[in-house]
Amino acid sequence: MSEEFTTAVVERCRWARAHNQGHPLPSWSTAEQVAVALVLRDTDHLAAMGYTVEQAADRVCAETQLSAFGLTGWLNDTRAAVRDGEPG
Questions:
Q1: Which DSSP letter does residue 28 get?
Q2: Domain boundary assignment for the chain
Q3: What pLDDT score was predicted for residue 1?
Q4: Are 9 and 17 spatial neighbours (Cβ–Cβ below 8 Å)?
Q5: pTM of the model as a whole
Q6: Cα separation of 13 and 84, whole Å?
Q7: What is the tens place of the pLDDT at every residue in 26-76?
Q8: In 1-88, which residue ranges form alpha helices assigned H by DSSP?
Q9: How far apart are CA 24 and CA 13, in angstroms?
């Protein structure tokens, strides 16, 4: 799994929360949008992209080469990293 991908997702999550009401930008890659939406639990954005949560999870598993179990840990760790970088 790519540390660079995780770092990019954390940064994009923080940006989305600070500047775009918690939504990914459509100009980001599909993989980034799907990962950010999963991390931020943005089911509206996933639906607008034509993804269910399950399909999005499959896409991120393929991108990160994680199992479904590994994805759960990755989501938890990524959500914690997003929170750790936020003020107050």
A1: S
A2: 3-84
A3: 62
A4: no
A5: 0.92
A6: 12
A7: 999 999 999 999 999 999 999 999 999 999 999 999 988 999 999 999 999
A8: 3-19, 30-39, 43-49, 53-64, 68-84
A9: 8
